[in-house]
Amino acid sequence: MYDVIIIGAGFAGLTAARTILKTASNARVLVLEAQTRLGGRCLTSRDFAGPVDVGCSWIHGYREGSVVRELTDELGVKCFVPNKGKSCMIFGSKVLDADLATKLSKNMSKALSTAASTASADIATSLASSLLAPSSPLFGALDSSSEQHLAKSLARTLEIGMGVQLEEVSLSCFGYEDSAKGTDAAIVGGYDTLIQKLAEEIKKMGGEIRLGSKAQDLAAEEGSDTSVSLNIVAQNDAQRASSRLVISTIPLSLLQKNRSELFKALSPRKLHAIDNVHVGKLGKLVISYENAWWPTDTGVFTVLPTEDDSVSTGSPENRLHDLFRSVPLVVSSFAIRSAPDDVQPPPSTHPTLLIYIPVPIVAEIEGQSASEVGQAMHGYLAESLPKEGVVPEGPRQSVLTNWAHDPYALGATSTPLTIKSVSAGISPTSFIELGRPESLGADDGKPRVLFAGEHTSVNNRGSVTGAVESGLREGRRAAQLLDL
Ligand SMILES: Cc1cc2nc3c(=O)[nH]c(=O)nc-3n(C[C@H](O)[C@H](O)[C@H](O)COP(=O)(O)OP(=O)(O)OC[C@H]3O[C@@H](n4cnc5c(N)ncnc54)[C@H](O)[C@@H]3O)c2cc1C
Questions:
Q1: Helices 370-384 & 316-324, crossing angle to 10 degrees?
Q2: Which of 108, 163, 283, 463 has its CA 20 to 30 A from that of 58?
Q3: Minimum CA distance residue for ligand 1 atom 35
Q4: What is the C-alpha to C-alpha distance for residues 334 and 351, in angstroms, rounded to an integer?
Q5: How many CB atoms neighbour CB 37 within 10 A?
């Protein structure tokens, strides 16, 4: 019998395990991870000259107070605030005039602040209707319709981080949270360095981590005060295990899909929150080259769409090209020297581009062959990005994420509240509900399963901050409940 079984070895699960073991070194803690790797939605690709994070990449709010920074400091993991270099906006193969680009960015920030501070009582009013309204600060001092078109296209880049389209987001609760604000820092060696350190420390403290072990059928143990039993399914073999408490960090999308095979009983309030909070989508494509053919002093290129909204139907080869030019693409270059030498000795640059694949097109793109998508993206970027007087050679290698179809992610993260969610009665307090303990239908009503994960954080949902915060919260709760 374990004291605590934790389901999931992502940031929430590993933080919870560490928190319990730091409180009580003799606690019997087991972490079950269904996949054969640690990290969940933290995944660092080592297929390139340097590490590339294809899941989470930034520690948000690094200088403004971050629980992730506290963790890196405690575990001696080095971070740096990168020099992102120059950035430029591109429309129709031309780099926009710097003054116009600055004006567009400032207008977007103002429009976003206005939307976040608007008290809209009407839950059916969308973020789009505020941001894109003719009176929106988005269009301040932009006279021509072509400039206004650029402003609208730039506003669509917000959909990358949100994982949902502007028309779907409810204005009524928009901007209440802290998520993704402040300074962004990166982890030297890739984000999974922190995951590995956490796992090492847990093992050193006596915790057990089992990979390739999926938990299901959680039920209150009969005749016992508070314990829970569950099935551990590993390589065609299932065994029953029990613990005094369970902490579930199973992602929301998986709870939505598999809740009846995971839990014997959950309260109606929890089920309502599970079913009605939205999970968004975001993908990443990474392409590497022998040599950089784009300006290496530029860290970020924002390529604005030339197609307004409709995608032309053409040959299959043109289909990808049409999809790319229908959305704004944010392209990060690793050819820029982003970390100071004392943090990351040279060479720390590599001729690699990372492209965020936004929600309108991600479901169609993820799951296709990485080399075909990489080749098509190369064709589009070779037309669009400025060139350093060289003819762009084709890519050497491409890696494409598949978060939308990954059976242990089924999407990116929980999103800002959508009109559909709010109409079903969801509010920011639903994130509290998602993190509330459950008794699994036992008559005594005592907590048996605790819930952590990014989707249980009211202020930092959708981020590593939210996952870590929830792991700290539920780790402490478990230690107190068990009087460890
Ligand atoms: C493309 C992308 C970019 C992102 N960028 C950023 C960023 O820059 N900054 C940021 O802060 N956040 C970012 N995020 C969000 C961040 O990655 C997540 O919020 C965070 O990693 C979630 O951690 P978690 O522990 O809640 O869930 P997960 O990391 O998903 O961990 C849950 C674990 O549970 C396991 N599991 C599921 N079911 C079972 C079961 N039945 N039995 C056993 N194990 C199970 C899963 O395999 C998984 O390992 C990004 C996410 C994506 C997809």
A1: 60
A2: 108
A3: 8
A4: 6
A5: 13
Residue 203 carries which side chain, given as an amino acid letter? K
CA dist., res. 470 & res. 22, Å (int): 16
- Name all residues whose Cβ lies below 6 A of ligand 1: 7-13, 32-35, 40-42, 55-58, 60, 214-216, 249-251, 254, 282, 284, 403, 408-409, 412-413, 453-454, 462-467
Cα 307 to averaged position of ligand 1 atoms, centre (Å): 33
pLDDT tens, position by position, 3-45: 999 999 999 999 999 999 999 999 999 999 999 999 999 999 9
Q: Is the pLDDT score of 198 beyond 90?
A: yes
Torsion-angle region of residue 395: left (phi > 0), alpha (psi -120 to 50) or beta? beta
* 399 close to 352: Cβ distance less than 8 angstroms: no
Distant-in-sequence, close-in-space partners of 283: CB < 8 Å, separation ≥ 6: 356, 357, 362, 365, 366, 400, 401, 402, 403, 404
Retrieve residue 244's tokens: 């005094």
Residue 136 has pLDDT above 90, yes or no: yes
